[in-house]
Each structure stands twice: as C-alpha cells, then as structure tokens.
Amino acid sequence: MANGKVYLVGAGPGDPGLLTIKGQLCLTQADVVIYDYLANPLLLGYAPEHAEKIYVGKVRGNHHLPQEQTNALLAEKAAEGKQVVRLKGGDPYIFGRGGEEAAYLKERNIPFEVVPGVTAGFAAAAYAGIPLTHRDITTSLALMTGHERPERKLSSLDWEKLATGLGTLIFYMGMTNLRMISEQLIEHGRSPKTPVAVVQWATLPRQRTLVGTLETIADDVVREGIEPPAVIIVGEVVGYRENLRWYDNLPLFGKRFLITRPRAQATEFIYKLQQQGAETICIPTIEIAPPDDLQPLDDAISNISDFDSLILTSANGVEAFFARLAENKKDVRCLAGIQLIAVGPKTAETIEKHGLRPDLVPERYQAEGLVEELLAEGVEGKRFLYPRAKVVRPVLSEGLKSAGAEVVAPVAYQNVRPTGKEEMIRHLLSESELDAVCFTSSSTFENLLKMFGDELKELKGRAEFFSIGSITTETIRKNGFEVALQPEKFTIDDLVAAMVEYYQK
C-alpha cells in the first residue's frame, strides 16, 4: 500500500479567495478532506468528487468530534495510504491546534506537511480597514486567545505587560470574556479611551465591524448583538478605520444573491459579484445533459462540408458541438470556408477558446437580432447548421426558413431539472435570507417554478427577481411575477453593472 500523508492546510479566514495556491493544490489531490467549522465549505469544491469529506467542526457548546478523535482520524486515514487534507480555518499553527495534530502524527511516524493560511486576526483587520502596525503609532502587536473559563480570569496572560508594553492587541475567541478583557487592560494601565474594534465574520459579505472603546465595547456588543465568530482588535490603529475602510464600502456589500445557473458556467458571474462585495449562493435549477439521441448531430457533422454557415447560440451549444466534433474524429479544419455565427459576445468568447473567431455577432444578442442581420445579408438557398438545445424558441429556424434558407437543427444538449435542491432553496426563501434571485435564462426560472408551483409566490417574500434579458423577463412576467431589474444589454457584465447601479440608487 502506498504511504499516506497528512496536509495541515490553513483555509484562511472565510473569503475563499484567500486560500493559498498550495492549499488549493493539496485539495485537488486529496482522497480525504477533514474540515472544521471555520473553513468555508465552498473550498470543498476543489476536492475531487471521489474524495471523502468529513466534518469535525466545533462551535461554542457543541464539539462535533473531540480533538483526540480528530487526531486519531487523521492517523487512521493516512495509515490507509490516503492523501489527507486537514482543512482548518485561518492558519493551522495560530490557535488552531495544528501543533497538537502535528505532534500526534509525528509520534506515529506519519508524514505530514503544514500549509500556512491567512490568520483571522490579520484578515479581520485588513478587511475592516485597520492597519495593525503604523510607524506613526505602533510597531508592535500581540496575538492572544481570549477563550478561557471566566473563573480562571485569563490567568495565563501577563496583563500588566500587555496593557502597557505592546501597541496593538488581537484577541481570538474572546467574545465570552470581552468584558473581563476590557476591565483587565484598564486595571493594568491601558487608557479606558483606547479604541477597540470587534469584527464578526471577517472577510465574508456578512462581516460586521463595531468600534468602541475599552470602557464601552462590552455594552456596545450586547446592544448590537455581535456574537462569535469575531476578532477583537485593541489599539490606536483602530482610529484609521474611517479613512481606510474599503470592504464594507463596496456597492453590493451585505447583499445575498441566489445564482440559478449551473456552477461550471456561473464561475465568472459569482466572481464578479463577489468583487463588488456580494455573497453568492449557487444552487442550479438546471443541469446540462446530452440529448436523448446524438445521431442527428453526428450525421450533420459527417456532412459538415455541405453547410454554408454554423450557428451557435450559447456556450453550452459550443461545448456540445465541439465535443461531438472530436468524438467523430474531426477538428476545426473541417470548418474551413463555413461562416461561423455566434449569438452574442459570451458565445463568441467560448468559440474563441477553440481557436476560431466568429464571422458574425449581431448587435442585438438574441435570435431576433441574428435573424435580422442574416436576412440583410441574404439567405435564400443557403444551408445552416444550428446545433441547439432540446427546447428553444422557433424564431431563428422559422425566420431563416421563411426567407428561403434550409436549416438543419439537431439537438446538441438539453436542460434538465436537478433533484434534491428544493429544500435548500425553500429555506433561503422562507427565511428571507435572499435579496434577489438571478436568472440567466428562461429555463432557470421555469425549473424553479416547477419545483414549487403556486407555492413560489408565497415563498418569494422580499427576494426580488433579476433577469439577464428580455426573453427571460417575458417568461417570468407571463407567469405572474415581477422583474425588478434587467440590463439594457444581455450579458453577465451588464447584469452585474445594472445590479451595482440598482443598489447605489
């Protein structure tokens, strides 16, 4: 049996973009991922589908799996010859018990490696607009855990030195003892007017930052309902926050959107929304599947030289067509001399990934605009190959045929409704946890409607519906729902820009 190995990987503070490149590489090669409460579950998406994923998280008052059993689990899986990733929030060696786990593995001669992560204290300060050191104020800082039983009065800390000997103090897991921490610092010489920031859910769109002083912060936290997980930052550097805050000033900060398109196609959309501060939850209402019968498409590909033009109207259509091209032992050379048409810029971009440039992209990114421009060129007597979805509007085929063209339109793929998504979506809608649901095609809405039927109107609550374009909007409205936002141009970039403008107003 091959030797197993354990990688103690720091998952960072929450924002999945703060995972290190090496941490991501470890996840892609993992056989087992053992993760905790503060590791963003989105990071599990980097692990292979076959990888076993085991939750051992801890929250206050509820230890899902005792530390001793976690240690044993790491050793057990590695002894089976597996590559094990222990995914820990923040950095494994900063209040993460990574040292205990490493020592346990070392005693048993099990190979391990430590992959550092961005620790929560540093990230919380950066995302709250607080430089932890500043040459005009302080060049020293200390990291401490405030997680100790009240009756022990955090006895392991030298309060006198902490209070007066260091500039910036960062307390992890100190919310339960915040009042005691404040009192001890004041009692040992720190000014009651010293600024304090409490940063909850650091680096995530739900982040909340509360600023007070040592004499007020404990009461402020109770009043505002700030709870763990949170980091406490004490020091004059907190005063820079008002000028340097950037994250919670982003235009979509604090907004939560449901993305309904397939995850593989939603990556760019999600990234652009997160760049604007939004929280995105991707629960696809459609999945892309092969057609029931591939023979008509294969027959068309076999006679590809008989066509004058190839029309592709979606990224899915592009990928499905080129996949069948390869399956039929052909490559892009067989498209020489054939006019290549894309319905819009994103379809064109997908085509370009295959080494080709479309000859025509219409000004209006929909079937009507495409038909209009083709008719202006003249289509009588021409043969068009149009690999399509199973269910499409007849606008394109009928428009060209009525002008004397021949259109061969084999099904290249179909949209199917995924199963097992209803309860997740129901919870988000019923608990009013969403600001909006984003639809990028008619089928994403139609499948959501099929999931819930008439119940959708009641479930929708305060969540608004955003649509990428006029066809999707028409589908939503004809079913009795309002559309709060639709961009002038029907692309993801324009949809994101319209969302930013919508909330800025």
Automatic annotation (TrEMBL):
- The superkingdom of the source organism is Bacteria
InterPro entries in alphabetical order: 4pyrrol_Mease, 4pyrrol_Methylase_sf, 4pyrrol_syn_uPrphyn_synt_sf, 4pyrrol_synth_uPrphyn_synth, 4pyrrole_Mease_sub1, 4pyrrole_Mease_sub2, CobA/CysG_C, Siro_Cobalamin_biosynth
Known pathway: Porphyrin-containing compound metabolism; siroheme biosynthesis; precorrin-2 from uroporphyrinogen III: step 1/1; Cofactor biosynthesis; adenosylcobalamin biosynthesis; precorrin-2 from uroporphyrinogen III: step 1/1
Question: What's in the keyword line of the UniProt record?
Answer: Cobalamin biosynthesis, Methyltransferase, Porphyrin biosynthesis, S-adenosyl-L-methionine, Transferase
Looking at the record, the residues that make up the Tetrapyrrole biosynthesis uroporphyrinogen III synthase domain are: 271-497
Q: Which GO terms describe its molecular function?
A: uroporphyrin-III C-methyltransferase activity; uroporphyrinogen-III synthase activity
Enzyme Commission number(s) from the entry:
2.1.1.107
Kindly give the PROSITE patterns that the UniProt entry links to this protein. SUMT_1, SUMT_2
List, alphabetically, the Pfam families matched.
HEM4 (PF02602), TP_methylase (PF00590)
Which EC main class describes this enzyme? Answer: transferase
Start and end residues of each Tetrapyrrole methylase domain: 5-217
Q: Which CDD domains match?
A: HemD, SUMT
The GO biological-process annotations, alphabetized, read as:
cobalamin biosynthetic process; methylation; siroheme biosynthetic process
- Tell me its family: Belongs to the precorrin methyltransferase family.
**What is the name listed in the Swiss-Prot or TrEMBL entry for this protein?**
uroporphyrinogen-III C-methyltransferase
In the record, what lineage is assigned to the organism producing the protein?
Bacteria, Pseudomonadati, Thermodesulfobacteriota, Desulfuromonadia, Desulfuromonadales
